[in-house]
Design brief:
This protein is mainly β. 9% of the residues lie in helices and 51% in strands. Strand 8 and strand 9 form a beta hairpin.
Length: 294
């Protein structure tokens, strides 16, 4: 029997490959590098201006990696010229953050942060960060599909790939965020007068630059776009291996909406992501008396 939704194309998920440019795109790497270089250059200046002699904290830079697990969400696909307007309910997302081999599955999670402390409120810090993680809709799963296809109403349970062969954000749900963080030092000593352990928590917000990639009825489209506003909350701790270096463990929760173009239309999905990351930090600028590097 003929089904009206077959006009969108047949399932061809086996033939879809993640392109090398979608694994590590020079454009997004350059954007990350430039933004963080500017932040690193600014932080020592901002952190040291008018600092009190008693309790100044040096600026810091941090790189981190881990996993970002995005919860199920609805995906909306609109193709007005074709009369297609579909909602795929409760779509699940794959992240592949833990892949260890350089293959089509090696999709890297990475982040960088630079921050400084306020001179007059030394426990309060500001930071700037970039976070790059990727998600892939599990289009082979059966979901509830409602809307119209060719102006005809539809309400079925079917694999998303029946209508949309591929939908993913594989050059990154790229977040560029500013944060306000509160810090508390623990386990103080002569060598670590501010504490060897730093507990911190904060909130942040900023812009996104996602790269959505899709295949619908055999038509592939992928591009970077200026995205929606993003927010995050974070909490973690850092352990000082030395006055200059620390290692950190952090939980983050981010929320944003991805709305990218698809062939002959556009798409939208609200993303809520839980992140668990491990970082390596370096403290720049002058150290407090008693904090010896060796």
């Amino acid at each position: 029997a003929h089904h009206p939704y077959r006009r969108l194309g047949s399932v061809r998920t086996e033939s879809i490959q993640i392109l090398p440019s979608e694994v590590m795109n020079p454009g997004v790497v350059s954007t990350f590098a430039i933004s963080m270089a500017v932040a690193v250059c600014l932080t020592p200046v901002c952190g040291e201006a008018g600092e009190p002699q008693g309790d100044h904290r040096p600026a810091h830079v941090r790189v981190f990696s881990g996993v970002g697990v995005t919860g199920n969400s609805d995906v909306h696909i609109r193709q007005p010229t074709l009369g297609n307007n579909l909602t795929f309910a409760d779509v699940s997302w794959e992240h592949r953050s833990l892949s260890t081999s350089w293959t089509r599955d090696s999709i890297l999670y990475m982040g960088m942060r630079a921050g400084f402390f306020l001179s007059r409120v030394p426990w309060l810090g500001l930071s700037f960060e970039a976070v790059h993680f990727k998600i892939l809709a599990e289009t082979e799963n059966r979901v509830h599909v409602t809307g119209t296809v060719g102006h005809e109403p539809i309400d079925v349970i079917a694999p998303m790939a029946t209508f949309v062969e591929v939908y993913r954000v594989t050059n990154g749900v790229n977040l560029f965020l500013s944060n306000v963080q509160a810090h508390k030092g623990l386990i103080r000593s002569a060598r670590f007068p501010r504490g060897r352990v730093d507990l911190y928590g904060g909130v942040g917000g900023g812009v996104t630059m996602p790269y959505t990639s899709s295949v619908i009825a055999g038509e592939r489209l992928g591009q970077y776009e200026l995205g929606r506003f993003a927010t995050q909350v974070l909490a973690g701790f850092a352990w000082r291996a030395s006055p200059r270096w620390d290692v950190s463990l952090e939980y983050k929760f981010t929320a944003t909406t991805v709305d990218g173009e698809v062939a002959r239309g556009d798409s939208e999905s609200r993303l809520h992501t839980n992140h668990l990351v491990v970082g390596l930090g370096f403290h720049v600028g002058s150290l407090r008396m008693g904090e010896r590097v060796s």
